[in-house]
């Protein structure tokens, strides 16, 4: 289950409201950015950082065509820490939304960066199967001898957004509405994936395509 979340003025968020906010960020902030990125041969992975009131601080996408380690999460961290420290929210008070389960590099970056709550939409198996990008699973196995990172650690807790829809405290109507939006998001990512697969040859900087 997700942690106790709060909206503006500290008002507790219901699971339905939390799901709505996270899906809205994907639909309105991350996916349009990713649509531009895949046209340049970048992968479909994106991310966003939300403040304590679930307002978007930054949203970004994969920029591997520019630099191999500018994955979606890492580039989002780069944009976040480029903000003036005086106006930037504390990372421990923010929520980090990943469109896909973070690769080992991104998960390490998030650990070092101090974000305490992570949300993800797609799984590692989705990345390998649906998106034909097997490297997260391969690196976990071949480099770290690990099938899956822990979801709960001393550094962060990670939550699956679709599991929250399945098992959270939503009414039948709220759950059905959320699943409709999820299917639309999945369909759009199928389209974005096709664009990436067609255009990934454009970059010589991406070694693992």
From TrEMBL:
Q: What GO MF annotations does this protein's record show?
A: catalytic activity
Entry's InterPro entries?
CMP_dCMP_dom, Cytidine_deaminase-like
Q: Which Pfam families match?
A: dCMP_cyt_deam_1 (PF00383)
Q: Which residues form a coiled coil?
A: none
Task: Report the residue ranges that make up the CMP/dCMP-type deaminase domain in this protein.
Answer: 35-117
Domain of life where this protein originates: Eukaryota
For this protein, the record's CDD domains field holds:
nucleoside_deaminase
Which SUPFAM superfamilies does the record match to this protein?
Cytidine deaminase-like
Q: Where is the signal peptide?
A: none
Entry protein name: CMP/dCMP-type deaminase domain-containing protein
Record the organism. Vitrella brassicaformis (strain CCMP3155)
